[in-house]
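just leaving the lab so this will be short. what follows is a protein written twice so to speak, once as letters and once as structure tokens for the fold. can you read through it and tell me how you think this chain folds. anything you notice is useful, everything is just below:
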Amino acid sequence: MVARHAACRDGLCLIAAIMVSMATLIVTLHVLTAIFLIGPLALAPFVGLRAVVRRDPDGVRRAAGAAMVLGASSGLVFLLGLAATGVSRGVSYSTPWVTISITLSVIALGAVLAVATPALRSVAAIIEDGAADSDVKARMDSLRGRIGASAGLAALSWAVVATLMVTKPFS
């Protein structure tokens, strides 16, 4: 029940209370989906690298598949973040930390989906072929470096996003 206040009239306080609770719900869902989707997405390419070291093509393919599914699912995190920004007071899409967070999230997602995942799939095919000449070794090293760099960039980007969302600088 909403307490009556002198400024409350015609149900405006009730509407304000519902909006606050809706904003809280959306922010909570945004945080939970980020934890359960972005966390594993950040780790999937690293799991794939471990499978590369073990020369396990199925493990590499599973990591690539997980990265692709989690990456696509992370669109929900993005939509909830946009909704949370839309219903929050004092925060808009032009708030610098929000703009930086959106930009870094797009960079991180692009690094995983456009660089790490295709590289993981290529490595899985190379391992399965079983060739071991110097050209194949050089190609594997190049792909491992690409996977590691893109995964590191994504993890660092998401760490900065989390820091920005907690500290809310430039507000």
In short: The chain has a mean pLDDT of 90. The radius of gyration is 22 Å. The chain is about 80% helix and 0% strand. Residues 12-53 form the longest helix (42 residues).
